[in-house]
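Late entry, evening session. Most of the bench is empty. Finally got around to the prediction I had been postponing all week. Sequence below, unchanged from the version circulated by S.P.
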Amino acid sequence: MQTFPYDRDAAAAYARKWAFRRNPRYYDFENIGGDCTNFASQCIYAGAKVMNFTPTFGWYYRSVNDRAPAWTGVEYLYNFLVGNEGAGPFAEERPLHALRIGDIVQLGRGTGDFYHSPVVTDIVRGQIFVAAHSYDAYDRPLASYRFERARGLHILGVRKQT
């Protein structure tokens, strides 16, 4: 297995293209719990181009009924990215000021319950801008959100079978 760079520009371009629309290749989870992590996963996939088909603990989407919990669940995505030692993208938690375009921010309550996964689309003079579904956003300032906690997921690279 080899490690390759994550294409941050491709992830951000996808986020901007689909911020106010839905890619018909993916189910829209807006009315059954929210679409934010599904959208974040689509953006990550645009930059990684590799899924991890490990049953239950992987990160993949074949259809609405054949997908990993990490594709659509905030905590599951976090656990996959920071714990992934196999194929696909992998990340580490970092403070917000250390994020880059194409990374993920997860917003949470003071209790530690994280509920939203916007994608970093730009950083201007230290201000982070994001795109998201479930309260659709396109280059929205992260500072305009109300949240008690936030964590950053910096994608370090992508592993592929060669």
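Two things to note before I forget:
DSSP finds four helices and ten strands in the chain.
Residues 75 and 114 are 7 Å apart (CA to CA).
Will write this up properly tomorrow.
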